[in-house]
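Hello,

I think I submitted the copper (II) ion job twice by accident. Can you confirm which output corresponds to this input? Input:
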Amino acid sequence: MKMCLRVIAGLTSFFIAGVVFANPTAARAENVIDVMAVDYAFGAPTEIPSGWTTFRMKNVGSEVHVMSLARLPETVSLAEIRKLNNAYASDQRRMHRGEIISEKALELWEAMEPAWWPRIEMHGGVGFISPGQVGETTVYLQPGLYELTCHIKTADGKSHFIMGMRAHIRVTPQASGMQEPETDVRLTVSRDGLELQGEISRGEQLVEVHYADSPDPLHDIHLARLDENDSQAKAVAWMDAVQAPAPVTMLGGVGHLSAGKSGYFDANYTPGSYLFLCQQHPEERLLVEIPQ
Ligand SMILES: [Cu+2]
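Support: Only one job matched these inputs. Its output is below.
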């Protein structure tokens, strides 16, 4: 535990030193926020400007990670959300140790669930990323307090969230000045499934992910690279529990955004088969082949 804390502290000071910088090589990446995913913590800045923002998350851990992004209601303080997260995580860990049954853990959560809980707004974030991969996702951020969480599970079924994978970022009124990215490729996500407009070609490609509606449970989009003939079925099956290890290589994506909003994500498409997947709606998937 001591070592874990030291890792987090080290990452935090590193990121405070180099929070926001312009990337001169990519015209659209004017406001890049580096995030590091380790087993099991995020290294992220604590304060960033508002407006269009590219999160570039490198997975330096040994398991798949995700950076779900949510905007908390304005009345919620950092101390309040941290206290709530810690209490919930503590009860969940007690449940995994067999000290309380799952019904008791649920009862404890219901007793502390705040009235504002349903008003948390999902705000995109980086999709599932395999170890060694870097995910780049661009979303528009209004000022406020945001929460980063990972809900992937360890091989023994504990969510990364309860293991410590949660962080908070204050988005300030200061504007990032970044323009909305431009791309010819748009993936529309709705109850009717996934619809791709434009063509994904070989090499680095920016895809706009447009959320047309917000069903319950919410959609999200993750990109898998398929390495075997049967891995489409494996990838879909893995979405059910998202428990380590993943059978395919995950390359990022865009978490849910309110209906009518878009986020963007970059990936490098080498020849092969790629599958766009929605975690909660496994029937919503789209296979893309990149020829040699
Ligand atoms: Cu994780």
